[in-house]
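agent: user wants the full assembly modeled, not chains individually. Plan: 1) parse entity lines 2) check alphabet per entity 3) run joint structure prediction 4) return tokens. Steps 1-2 passed, two entities, 816 residues total. Proceeding.
--- entities ---
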Amino acid sequence: MNDHTHESHDHHHEESFIRKYIFSLDHKMIGKQFLIFGLIMFMVGGGLALLFRWQLAWPDRPLPIIGFSKTYQETGEVATDADRKWEERFDDDKETWLETNMPGGVIDPAFYNSLFTMHATIMVFFVVVPLLVGAFGNFLIPLMIGTRDMAFPVLNMLSFWSNMLGGLIMMAGFFVPGGHAAAGWTGYAPLSSVAEYSGVDWGQNLWCISLIVMGISSLMGSINYITTIINMRAPGMTYFRLPLVIWSLFIVAILLLLAFPVVASALALILFDRMAGTSFFIAAGGGEPLLWQHLFWFFAHPEVYILILPGMGMASEMLPVFARKPVFGYKSMVFAMIAIAFLSWIVWGHHMFQSGMNPALGASFMTTTMLIAVPSAIKTFNWLGTLHRASIRFTVPMLNTLAFVSMFVIGGLSGIYMANSPVDIFIHDTYYIVAHIHYVVFGGSVFAIFGGIFYWFPKMFGRHMNATLGKIHFWITFLAFNGVFFPMHIIGVGGHMRRIANPMQYEYLQPLQPINVFITICAFILGVAQILLLINVFWSIFRGKVAEQNPWQANTLEWHAPTPVPHGNFGAIPQVYHGPYEYSVPGAETDWTPQTQPNGESLHGEPIPVGASAD
Amino acid sequence: MNELEHTSYEQAEGESRPISNARLAVLVLLGAEIMFFAGLIGTFLVFRLGSVTWPPPSQADVRLPIGVTGLNTIVLLLSGYTMFQGLRAIRQGRQKELRNWLFATGLLGITFLVVQGSEWIRLVHHGFTLSSGVYGSVFYVLIGCHALHVLVAVLWLLVVFAGAIAGRFSMNRYVSVEVCAIYWAFVVVLWPLLYILVYLI
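--- prediction returned ---
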């Protein structure tokens, strides 16, 4: 280990393949590992969603290609290869995985429960957090604050590999007897704490263990991020000269640090209930099922801000660059994020209006939840202020960022309805909630991720992604996304419950079925469109147009580093002179002013420190 | 910790910081530990405050070893004192004293664990187990999690002790001792709180 440190300052040092690509200590490589991991899991999570969308649109109809053909169902004649294979599978004595979970290509209701549970679990814990916090956090923090690596590179590597271990444990759950966890991503007790209730045995145990491992991974990441940002900023990089994405990651690291241990303790208690005969969450044994909801949401409400804050930070990063204007209200942006993070600790009860709660307590949770609208609105108006009278460059990252801002507004507005406990009692557990969460997490975070991948790709891989393909991907995704999730508001208000395998069983839901079919068609378009993204990413890594050092003409420090970024990031550690968003400064030669460029007085009114000099 | 220290770029940049990376990191870690125990203590309080009688009627005959554990509390508090003395010794460069104090600390820590363990065995023999209703569950999980933390702290201390025997610490170089001492202080300070909550009230 020690040798490695000394060598790491030698930029021309060649490392072995394993050291460089697998057990890498370099924050950039670890960031890329998280990126690839997250993208693969994104496809897995999306694939699960397509499976259950099929079931929702055409309940109990065999899946196309792998299921029984129409001829077979009507006449009993073997018409396709799939029919023949199914007959063989049914004939022999062994019960295969496919037979258990989708006999004849029809999704089994128990498997349906696993599907939506794992879709949410994977998307939340293995896609959005690894991408936003793992990939962008690792790649951007040292580059943007102007240091050579994270404070603890070994811890950083361990963080990725424990994340990977958590992912493997989670995937293994699909293949254990009894199927995967099926108690929803919220794992409500006692459904999750008694094996007989959901019929799931080891699936739920693995779910708990995997999330605890993930918690350890994010704990290591958080310690690293917080230490690095506090201690290792380049000279002149004061807190209020930090790019907003670094602020958002800093705040998120604190949230993750403090929130995850709480759910880790609760997950441990569930494991004890399931495996050691305790009854923390089992009423029959004197336990308290509601306690799980309190512990879970005490973690999971900060968690949903963990999912959106880095997206907000990335949007605040890309908007000024492509609007060629300073971000509107830098400090109010920072304080708004701090306010959101603080409020996230005192609103968890709004998930539990229906679980039984003292009305006075419900009213307090309602008030604190509504308060979050204030900092969120500050951020939205600041983004709009940044766009106001700007000469916008409609690049792919900018399109995705604009989608982020507009979709986040829709998600935020529907959130206000839910915050009202009387309204929430009506729409609780309906597709309205599903629409809301997807407008915020897909419409918000995932569009920010798409934008971020495009924006930082040239620095990550030294090549550009294909802009035309990117625009096609963006427009299909944007339209299909709204096609999927907007109608969910309507069926939700129409009373369509979530987590039901067959809406046709309910007479009052049958008139809504055409909307379900429309949603599913859009979902398949949305899913297929993501293949374009994958093609664009993997093709561009090897074949993309070679990128120059600062292709977007941006100010922040990562563009000061050479492309491709060498080990150790910078030749000499840069000196920072002003804030990150000084675009179109009157009298300046160019419409961007890198943070490393001394320029008299900064736009935030801070004079240059006396005695500071350029490298 | 030692190893992590070496792989950081801290020395490389040679900057003076108000607090070193390792110290900051262990303080940040304690933030997470506090939240972990907050979750467990919250669980305990939900059951404790939700019961009219404590222990619950079904476990009314259970008597926790208040006296022995009280003495054990003093043992652990003493170990906090010896750890602090060890840190003070190395700050003044007295390596031999550091070794002695660390040895005493480790001995006290192990004594604490042994006494806790033997008391547990006694309780289990009396039929009071993890599955003896919520009373047994919260007792074993909460106290067990603390014991696990003491065990980790003892193992960490052994690593530091080995370093002290090898003479790796000096007046200017004692970060590894200090971060271990910070963690040790956490497990020591947490204990009286748990003792009062679980054994006394």
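agent: reporting back. The mean pLDDT of chain B is 90. The first helix of chain B runs from residue 2 to 7.
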